[in-house]
Design brief:
CATH topology of the largest domain: Ribonuclease iii, N-terminal Endonuclease Domain, Chain A
CATH architecture of the largest domain: Orthogonal Bundle
CATH superfamily of the largest domain: Ribonuclease III domain
Strand order of the largest sheet: 1-2-3
Distance between the termini: 64 Å
Length: about 230
């Protein structure tokens, strides 16, 4: 297995029992091709990590968004813990580089597969939980999910605004509002988008966000506010 000191530095966590981290990175394909070399795959850890992640994210959403109802909280949690999101976070910490895969799985691009990355990330959470406890696991999760959590919340709220605006325009004017990208400034990792929502040549609102979708939603929100005045 690769030297895990660099990975621990990226995680900001030094394991007391390195075997937990090693287990979190061991894919079932490696066990199948190398019986007896490693004790088990990370599948049981993945099960536990999914539960720990769900509790931490649910608790954080509950506290952060006191006005959200059960349906909204459930939708936000689902968006955050879906496999694509977990895989994206796993890529940010280069988790795929450290996975123990079978030869066939490795040759098939297994280190970059969404299922493998998401599963190994959940396993990593479980390993941190078992080695360092719930407080360390919580801090680790929220450190990585913080920006994504609030972006998802903003986009979630915006989805309702866009739907409401479209329904209002269809009912009153039988027309669908259009969105125009005004600007996109900043580096790729911190770009800021500005979008206008229009009906013909009339601008109803302008929004800003860290993604084009979020900016559109913010524009729809402002449009609804302007129309209600």
């Amino acid at each position: 297995m690769a030297d895990l000191s660099q990975l621990q530095a990226k995680l900001g966590i030094t394991f007391r029992e390195l075997s937990w981290l090693e287990l979190a990175l061991t894919h079932s394909s490696y066990i199948n091709e190398n019986p007896g070399i490693a004790p088990a795959s990370n599948e049981r850890l993945e099960f536990l990590g999914d539960a720990v992640l769900g509790v931490v994210i649910s608790e954080s959403l509950y506290q952060a968004f006191p006005e959200a109802d059960e349906g909204e909280l459930t939708r936000l949690r689902s968006a955050l813990v879906r496999r694509e999101t977990l895989a994206e976070i796993a890529r940010e910490i280069d988790l795929g580089e450290y996975l123990l895969l079978g030869i066939g799985e490795e040759a098939g691009g297994g280190s970059n597969k969404i299922a493998n990355l998401a599963g190994s990330f959940e396993s990593l959470i479980a390993a941190i939980y078992l080695d360092r406890g719930i407080d360390t696991a919580r801090k680790f999760i929220l450190k990585l999910f913080g920006p994504e959590m609030y972006e998802q919340a903003h986009e979630g709220a915006g989805t309702d605004y866009k739907s409401k605006l479209q329904e209002l325009m269809q009912a009153e004017r039988q027309i669908t509002p259009g969105y125009r990208l005004v600007s996109a400034v900043g580096p790729d990792h911190a770009k800021q988008f500005t979008v206008e929502v229009n009906i013909g040549n009339l601008t109803l609102g302008r929004g800003i966000g860290t993604s084009k979708k979020a900016a559109e939603m913010d524009a729809a929100r402002e449009a609804l506010e302007n129309l209600s005045k």
